Amino acid sequence: NCTQQSRNYTLKIFYPQKVERVETKSIIRFLRRTKLVKWQYTAFKVYLRVSYGTITEVWGTKVNSFNTGTYTNKKDFNLALKAFLEK
Fold first, then answer.
1. Which three-class secondary structure state does DSSP give residue 73?
2. DSSP 13-62
3. Looking at residue 39, what is its pLDDT?
4. For residue 11, what pLDDT is reported?
């Protein structure tokens, strides 16, 4: 039992000289930002987190539901993003 409107998207891009962070509830804003990632950098990684809100477990406890991962190439990132965004 998950509330759809509480979905939150976080993206951290670790460039050699700086870190960019994007956190939004807008899927359109999030997907536009993911297309701007510059994958040609070396010593580079991208942190992805999709939070789905609070769910009730089998035992009745409420927990935050999310998927998270850190990626160093575009292929793995896109596979994870597709999996995280499935309903």
1. coil
2. EE-SS-EEEEEES-HHHHHHHHTT--TT-SS-EEEEEEEEEEEE-TTS-E
3. 83
4. 95
| Higher local confidence (pLDDT), 49 or 3 | 49
pLDDT tens-place string over residues 4-47: 457 899 999 998 888 999 999 999 999 999 998 888 876 689 99
Q: What are phi and psi of 72, to 5 degrees?
A: -120, 0
Non-local (6+) Cβ contacts of 68 within 8 A are 47, 48, 49, 50
**What Rg, from alpha-carbon coordinates, does the chain have?**
14
Residue matched to tokens 């951290």: 12
Helix or strand (DSSP H, E) at 71: strand 62-71
Residue 44's φ and ψ, nearest 5 degrees, are -140, 140
